[in-house]
Every structure is written in structure tokens, then in C-alpha cells.
Amino acid sequence: MTYPPPKALLRLPPSRNKRVRSGIAAIRLLLRKALLQEAAVQLQQLQQHEPANVEIALLQAELLTLGGDHDRSCQLLKQILSRHPGLVPALVLSARAHTAAQRHLDALDALQLAHQLTPQDHDIAKQLAETLVLLRCPSKAIAVLAPLVRKSKSPADIAQLAGLHDKAGNLEECLAGYDSIRPPIPDIHVLKAGALLVRGKKSDARAAVDDAILAAPDNASLRLFVAKNFADDFDPARQAQEIDTILASPGASTLSAEDRARLGFALGLAHERNGDFAKAFRAVEEANSHAKPECFTKDQQLEKVALGIAEHFTKARLAQLAPAGNASQKPVFVTGLPRSGTTLVEQMIASHPDAASVGELELIPALKQSLVSLQSSDIKRCAQAWLDAVPESKTDKARIVDKSISTVLHTGLAMLMFPRARFVFVRRHPMDIYWSAYREMFGMNALTFTYATQPLVRHIQLSEHLMSVWQQRFPDRVLTVKYEDIVNDPERHIRSMIAHTGLDWSDDCLEFHKSNSDVRTASMAQVREPVYKSSVGKWQAYHSQLAPVATALADLIANYEKAPA
């Protein structure tokens, strides 16, 4: 039986005690100013006057969340909601605490009920949409956001909705949304070109690029987009000269660090295509200095967690927990280091008539905190969240390929969710990995370890270690392939990969470059071409500049080069 939601309760009756009311107002001001110690003292005093006051309890929960004690905050809010199930402020605060604790499925529950109770609340709707996007449910996010965008008509909201249509596979709605923005926002033509190129519509994307060149020839996003995806269409020497002119212009002083990084990476690619490797290396070094985050604490924490997962989820432990997982054989996790060839492998498998790809889903990091509880209900729910993220048009396929780079770090969690899933690890020469990743602009908040030598070297070493651990532990579930072997003998290795997934052979897999599936990675232009070998050994053009890196990776290089195909 389905019960109706509780009646919305937007606020509670204020305290009859004037001193308590003024104290509550004062504490709210302290919390807004992040003066947590002062707020805690005053809260304690107020609780002595009215220990059952729900407003005070809400302030206590907010204080706990701001102080990082998310578990106690969620427990307190659970108690409040058990007495006042329709109290919207408690639901919103509960979602905030769960989000801060990275328990996004619990945050989703709270936000869905809050939105159901107050569908006109713009802030709640936006929070719900953001959570749905985080959980890779763009179509559901569109349903929440679209009514608000029709009312607001804000260019930023329209662009956000158009981007969601892009992710949901609605190209016409995406392009119509971008075209409706007046006046056009920066990067609009690049966004359109990207949406087209994702779907292999290169000629249409080129037309959008031409529009962009006319509208904003100095745009940094455009310069990098062209350098990465349309390099053959433009003279590299001229491109390098034009970028140098932009960087030397009086307006360059107002460029953001991100735009300087974009222009630098684009310049490096232009010099490389022109055969001037010394200038290319200097440009890439300069670009990384602008893209480089101030610290890599987050990356170091991720590495620590990854080692902990590998240590905890032994073969025996995963066998013990297997009944809590989902028995589906649909998931195929393709992973490896960035720029290792994972997109190529993904397309080869997904070109099978009984397979489809969801691209870089990158959902496990959002589910991680729920999974580590090791509660059967949490494991089942996380596995279902992964399955729910598969677009409806692909749910009938026998295999779904998830090409997430982060799976290298979270292999144990993927195995926890899906005890019958298959994994394909893609390896590549460590120096080609290093240079290809180091010269790439992934985004200011993505793969930050690639923007400096030491973190990138450390991540290569860590990932190689983790891949070896899981390969040795689960040789029946993990297939390791080498990029160089694939490009040298594609049919042999494609057959091996298809057999590993449990599918019968299809000649369609040899025509992977003709696939019409979406590709959103840095390789989205390259995988539309047949297999080529020009990327093998590309780092050798920078042999002298990269000598210190080669020394740091010497053991990995020696092991890789002597390993059999």
C-alpha cells in the first residue's frame, strides 16, 4: 500500500519565550558567519531553557553539520522527522548533512520528499536536480528543472538545462536550448560543437566551430577544442602564432588561470604537430603551472582509500559478501589510467549488437560512503542505483560498458555491488601514459594529479600496483590488455575481450569506429577513426626533457617492456 506524503510543514510556531526567540535569531546569525564556538555556547544555554524546542534542535543539527559531525546531525534530524515527518527545513538540512557525508542516496530521499511537499521551491528543486545529476540521472533532473527554467528564463538556467539534455541524449532539445539563449553566453558555440562531436557528427561540429571562430576568435575554450579535435583542419604554425598573439596582447592580463592553461595546452599541441618539440614541452609546462591545484591532499586521500579497499576486499571477503550484491551479469567495467586507451576498448566492446556503453559513468565515487557500511541493504541499493543510471534505451542490452577511470581505485566496491561483473584493465607504456596525460587539459577539478610530475608519477605507480593486485586475485573476472598489442593485432585482442564478457563473437566489433554511440572523453575524435599506431612511443620526442620521469618509473617501464603480449 502506498501512503500519501505527510502534510508540508514549512515552519514551527515560534517560542513564547521572547528571550529564546531572540537567542535563536542570534545563533542563526553566528552560524551564517561560521562562528561555531560562540554558537555552541549560546545553543547550550538555550537548550536549558527549552530542551524540547524543535527550532533549537534544528540549529543544533546545523551546527553539527557545519562542524563536520554529519552522523550525529543526521541522527538528530531523524529524530526530529519522526515527530514532524513533513517538516521541510529538517528534510533540507538532512539532505545537506547526507550530501556533506557523501551519502547521496540518502540525500536524494530527503530532497525528493521536500520537493514533493513544496514543488514551487526553486532552491529545493535545484538541489534535487544537482543530486540527480550526481547520481547520473539527467532525464529525472530535466523533469525537475524544466518547469523552473520556463519561469526564470535565466541564461545560466537555460544553459544548464541544455547541458542536461545533452547528457540525456536529447540532441535537438540541447541545441534548441543553446540557440535560445540571448544574448549568447561565452563558449556557446563550443558547447554546441561538443554536443555534436560527442555523437560523431564531425561536419556539423565543424560548422559550429566556424561560427565560434567568427564570434570569438580569442576564446580559450575554442582554441583548445580546435587543437584537440580539428587539428588536421588548421595550419599548426598559424595556430601557434595566433595563440602567442593572444597571450602577448594587453588583454592577456585579465585571463583567468583556467583560460591561460587552455591556451597553453592548445599551444603545446600546435607546436607538437609542427614538429617543434622544445616549444611544445615549454608550452605544456607553462599550461600545467596554471592548471595545477594548490595542493593534492584530495588525491592523496583517494589513494589511501584505494589501498584500503584493495587490502580489505580479499577474495574470501568478497565471496562472503556476494549474496548482498546484485547478480546481474550486465556490467562490464573498462578501466585504466587516463589516456591508456580505455575509450578505444570501450568502443570495441560496445560495438557488439548485444552491448552498449554508458561512457564514463563515474558513479561509484558518489556511492562509496554508502558501500563501505557493508550493510546488505546499502549494497543492494547502490547496485540498483548503478542500474538505474543506464538509459532506458540501453536496458535491453546483455552487457553495459562503464568506462570509468576511477574504477581502478574502486575495483573492490564494483565487485561488491556486482559479484558476476567482468573487468577489463587497459595498460599502456608508462611513459606514453605520462606524456599523454601531462599534456591534456581534463578540467580544473578533474584528474588533478595529471597537472604536476610527482602526483602523476605516484598515481601511475599506484594504479599499476592496484591492477596487478586485482588481476592476480581474480584472474577469471579481470582481463588485462595492452594498448600496443591492441593496435598491432586488433582482431585477436577484440576477440579475447568479447569472449571475456561472455558474448558470442560479432564482426560488428571490427567496425567499432563506425559506431554511433556517444563518446565524451578526451579521445572522442580519435575513436571515430580506424586503429592507428602513431600514438605508440610518442613520448620519445621528449626523451631528454622526460629523463627524470623515466628514471622515477624505471621499474615499471622494465616490467612493462618485458611482459608478454
Verbal overview:
- With 565 residues, the protein is mainly alpha-helical.
- The protein has four domains: 18-133, Tetratricopeptide repeat domain (Serine Threonine Protein Phosphatase 5, Tetratricopeptide repeat, Alpha Horseshoe), CATH 1.25.40; 135-215, Serine Threonine Protein Phosphatase 5, Tetratricopeptide repeat (Alpha Horseshoe), CATH 1.25.40; 217-291, no CATH class; 307-562, Rossmann fold (3-Layer(aba) Sandwich), CATH 3.40.50.300.
- Helices cover 60% and strands 4% of the residues.
- It is built from 28 helices and five strands.
- Strands 2-3-1-4-5 form a five-stranded parallel sheet, with helices on both faces.
- Helix 1 (18-32) packs parallel to helix 3, helix 8 runs antiparallel to helix 9 (155-168) and helix 17 (297-312) packs parallel to helix 24.
- The chain is globular, with a radius of gyration of 26 Å.
Concise synopsis of the structure shown:
This protein is mostly helical and 565 residues long. Helix content is 60%, strand content 4%. The protein has 4 domains: 18-133, Serine Threonine Protein Phosphatase 5, Tetratricopeptide repeat; 135-215, Serine Threonine Protein Phosphatase 5, Tetratricopeptide repeat (Alpha Horseshoe); 217-291, no CATH class; 307-562, Rossmann fold (3-Layer(aba) Sandwich), CATH 3.40.50.300.
Features:
Serine Threonine Protein Phosphatase 5, Tetratricopeptide repeat; 565 residues; mainly alpha; 4 domains
